[in-house]
Specification:
The protein is an alpha+beta fold. The N and C termini lie far apart (44 Å). The longest helix is centred in the N-terminal third of the chain and has 17 residues. It is globular. Strands 1, 2, 3, 4, 5, 6 and 7 form a seven-stranded mixed sheet that branches. The chain is 35% helix and 38% strand. It has four helices and seven strands; from the N terminus they run αααββαβββββ.
Amino acid sequence: MSPSTALAATLDAAQIEAFLHRQVHCWNAGDKAGFFEAYRSVAPNGLQIEYVGRPPSDGWPVLEQMWAQQSAKIEIEELLLVINGSEAACHALNKVRGTAMAIHTLELYAFEAGRLNVRYFIQPPSTVAASPTPV
């Protein structure tokens, strides 16, 4: 087993949580190097990203495009994080800076053998409510 595979195979809940918080922190801080390093640290053997409803893609160009198009426009608020085994589900509020608009996302992360598979479920933008309405 290669060192990167061994490292990725041993990710525990605390390491997954640290990655998820770090990538949001770096995004909000405008720290592109830190953002990409967070992903490289958990996905040394590959990254796949799927916007649900579209085919999965090589994640590195998707992250580059996401950063270029959205990082200056969006601030992320973490609403919920659930980790079970080597998978995580996140509910995020993606606030459009300078507006009352926001985009809710449900994000699924699966960590396996040094690879990370991410699936994004994206709700169309809406005006941010004072408090979330329970489903």
